[in-house]
Amino acid sequence: MRRRSKKGNDQAEVNMTPMLDIVFILLIFFIVTATFLQEEGFDMTPPPPNDEAEPTEPNPVILVQIDAENRVFVNQRATSEDRVLAAVQRIRAEAPQSAVLIEPNDEALHGTVSTIWDDMRVNRIPVNIQRPTGDDNN
Fold first, then answer.
1. Residue 138, SS3?
2. What residues are paired with 127 via a beta bridge?
3. What is the 3-state secondary structure (H, E, C) of 79-123?
4. What are phi and psi of 37, to 5 degrees?
5. Element (H, E) at 39
């Protein structure tokens, strides 16, 4: 009969030394690189005062209004949708820095507003759209 040999408790041991070395190297790496990071901020010093004189009058605004019945007014003068560009160019001939402000009524047709907007943008006239200030429909 064969004898059974008693095997000792052979447990595999994990060598933790290389893993600890790697952890310490990573820790040192992150500490060293973090100290060299510099956050950039905004320069909060105000600009030097401007020596040029401020303009006494602001640039005039050309007001284009479109009412609920789709009637168009340029500076409170009635005109047709097709003649808005000509009226604006006539006013800009006297004041070339003026911009156009379109005030459409809520009931105005969107096609009219977009046509006027497109005419101004194509001719490189500064334009903006705003709700009428007299509305109580907040």
1. coil
2. 100
3. ECHHHHHHHHHHHHHHCCCCEEEEEECCCCCHHHHHHHHHHHHHC
4. -75, 130
5. none
3-state DSSP assignment of residue 40 = coil
Q: Is the pTM of this model over 0.70?
A: no
Q: Determine, yes or no, domain membership for 81.
A: yes
Residue 97 belongs to domain spanning: 71-123
Q: Which pairing describes strands 99-104 and 127-129: parallel, antiparallel, or unpaired?
A: parallel
Query: What does the mean pLDDT of the chain come to?
Result: 83
Helix (H, G, I), strand (E, B) or coil at 17: helix
**How many percent of the chain have pLDDT more than 70?**
81
Domain total of the chain: 1
